[in-house]
Each structure stands twice: as structure tokens, then as C-alpha cells.
Amino acid sequence: MCDTCGCSSEAGAVLRKPGLNDYHVHVSENVHGESHLHGSDHHHEHTHEHHHQGKSRTIALEQDVLQKNNLLAERNRGYFEAKKIFALNLLSSPGSGKTSLLEKIIPSLQKHMPVAVIEGDQQTTNDAERIQALGVPVIQINTGSGCHLDALMVNSAVRELELRDNSLLCIENVGNLVCPAMFDLGEALKVVIISVTEGDDKPLKYPNMFHEADLCILNKIDLLPYVDFDVRKCRENAMRVNHHLEWFELSAKTGEGLDVWLEWIKNKQKQH
Ligand SMILES: Nc1nc2c(ncn2[C@@H]2O[C@H](COP(=O)(O)OP(=O)(O)OP(=O)(O)O)[C@@H](O)[C@H]2O)c(=O)[nH]1
Ligand SMILES: [Mg+2]
């Protein structure tokens, strides 16, 4: 877990529905098990004892946070399995095309299964508004300073969404190739998306993400003539990190390759 970006020391995520006032707030636990925001200057007005014993203490706290998250993720997973909900966790750096891809696939998928979406961003309901325009249930989670979704946030959002049995739940994580890889949300599968403008070395630079993922989508292949991006090398790099990784190349803009992904989702949902 990143201990410098603030993701583990923020407090508060806001659930929002486009067009409505914020109606539900919950506070994330931080590594101290507290539920309030710590200042970055490390002065605390409260009086509890702090332990500053270096790396071993940090690792212990990280394990604690992740263990709590994993327990809640298993509860989410149990709920999804009981209702036969197929949940996908979509992960990428900012702007790789997560929402664009959802906009493309949801109209086709809706003909086969009920679809709902959880959107994760630090601020704005922009993505939720784009999804709402498709007529599917959607909740926006704003994480504030947090750079990932966690199982508690998803649990809260799921309660508001009233998901239908046998449905597909797409969870668009906060754009970030680092911390979201560590937080199990209870999903069935993780899909990492990279685009051809990001560089073909990304799987090597951010191996945890590619190691955790079940499928890698290379998006924006319509831009390949204009960028220096070696598709074969990128795929090889991804496979070096995770040789079980499935791999699709497509363009949300032109629709090229989307059929293959749609079939993958339908098949995985049936098998689930
Ligand atoms: N040329 C091209 N542009 C694309 C493609 N997919 C997405 N874009 C563009 O890339 C930009 C970012 O797309 P989004 O779908 O918002 O990306 P995102 O991953 O949801 O972004 P965040 O939620 O901010 O992390 C937009 O300007 C899209 O129009 C594609 O396949 N080809
Ligand atoms: Mg988005």
C-alpha cells in the first residue's frame, strides 16, 4: 500500500447520484483505525498513543487495513454469489477509456442481462452522468483524497443500488495503476485497461496491477499510427508479469475489437 500519497490516511467517501444531493456519507478507516482526517504536518490534537517504529510498524498497519478490507470483500462476494451478480472491477490509469468502454458495451449487454454501475473518482459526478444517460442504475463514489475504492465503499453503494438477480455490476475504479490493485472489492474478475498513449512498458512499471488482473484490454488502437507503441512488446511485458492474463486489443472510439470483449463478458457471466 502506498504510504506517501495519502490514500491510507484519508477520511470520507461520498456516495452521489447525478441530479440529487449527496445523500450518504461514510468514513473510511485509516491505518490507525481512526475515522478522522490526519493533517499532513503530523500534528494531532487528540491524545492517543502513536507508534512510530519504522517499517515493521507500517507493514503491520497495512496488513491490518488490508485484512479488514478482505473480510468485507468476502461479504460482498458472498452477496454477489447469492444473487448471481457478476461483478467486474475495471482498473486503469486516468483517461485510458474506462467510461468510454462502458458507454460502448452497456447498450449491447443490456439486451442480455440487467446492468448496474458503480463509478469511482476523487471528485465530480461526470462519469455517473455519462452512464445514467444510458438508462442503467449508477452510483458515483467520490473518494476525496483517496486514490482507490475499498470494499466498504462498494458495500455502501451496493445497498443503494438494489441490484437485480443475475445482473452484471461494473465497478469503475479510481484512475490509478497502483493502490487499487491491492483492494479486493468482492468482484469476480479484475480487468486492467491500458491505452496506446501510455507506453508499452506499463506492465513492467506497475507489475502488481497486471499480476492481479484477469484480463488486460489495450484500448485506443485507432491511435496506433500516431504513437510509438509496440503492441507485441507490451503484450510480452504483460505476460512476463502474469502469464495467465487474457489480452484483448480494441478501440472504444471505432468499436474495433469490442465484440470479442462482449462475448467474453457474456461467457464469463454464464460460467460464474
Ligand atoms: N482515440 C480514442 N480516444 C478514446 C478511446 N477511448 C477513450 N478515448 C478518449 O479518452 C479520453 C478519456 O476517456 P474516458 O473514458 O473518460 O477515460 P476514463 O478511463 O474513464 O478516465 P477517468 O475516469 O478520468 O480515469 C476521452 O477523451 C475519450 O474520448 C479510444 O478508443 N480511442
Ligand atoms: Mg471514467
The helix/strand order is EEHEHEHEHEEHHEHEH
DSSP helical segment count: 8
| Estimated radius of gyration | 19 Å
Instruction: Report the uncertain regions.
Output: 25-51
For the largest beta-sheet, the strand count, sense and barrel status come to:
9 strands, mixed
CATH H-level superfamily title: P-loop containing nucleotide triphosphate hydrolases
Averaged pLDDT: 88
CATH architecture tag: 3-Layer(aba) Sandwich
What structural category arises from helix and sheet content? alpha/beta
Shape type: globular
Placed side by side, the strands forming the largest sheet appear as: 2-1-5-4-6-3-7-8-9
Ligands bound here? Answer: guanosine-5'-triphosphate, magnesium ion
For this structure, the CATH topology is Rossmann fold
Q: Level of helix content?
A: 25-40%
Instruction: Domain count, please report it.
Output: 1
Strand elements, count: 9
Q: Give the C-level CATH assignment.
A: Alpha Beta
Intertermini distance: 30 Å
The percent range for strand residues is 15-25%
Question: What does this 3D model show about the protein?
Answer:
There is one protein chain. The chain is α/β, with parallel strands linked by helices and 272 residues long. It has a single domain (13-28, 51-271), classed as Rossmann fold, CATH 3.40.50.300. It is 34% helix and 17% strand. Strands 2-1-5-4-6-3-7-8-9 form a nine-stranded mixed β-sheet, with helices on both faces. Helix 1 runs parallel beside helix 4 (151-161). The longest helix has 28 residues, at 55-82. Guanosine-5'-triphosphate (GTP) binds at residues 92, 94-100, 121, 127, 175, 219-220, 222-223, 251-253. Magnesium ion binds at residues 98-99, 127, 172.
